[in-house]
Amino acid sequence: MVDKKTQEEILRGMDEAAKEAQQDFMTLPGETRKLAAAWVRKWYLKAGYKRLGRFLVSYAKELEKGQG
Asked: Is the CB of residue 36 less than 8 Å from the CB of residue 28?
């Protein structure tokens, strides 16, 4: 388990990295930026569906345990 101070440091680092990535993204040429944005949206959507699927499987297993 990570202590609260370490968690805050990690979150600050993630915030800084996200800001830098956003600044870098904005320097891309227009067409490249559009392609990159489309890829990121597709990737996040796919990752979100995978997470949702894992959650639903886990939830269904927990329900089965409660009814058995």
From this structure: yes
Number of domains observed in the structure of the chain: 1
Amino acid at 58: S
Residues in the chain: 68
Residues 15-64 have pLDDT tens digits of 898 889 888 888 989 999 999 889 888 888 888 888 888 888 888 888 77
**Nearest to residue 37, comparing CAs of 21, 48, 13, 51?**
21
**What pLDDT does 31 receive?**
93
Domain that residue 17 falls in: 4-67
Query: Two tokens at 37?
Result: 């944005």
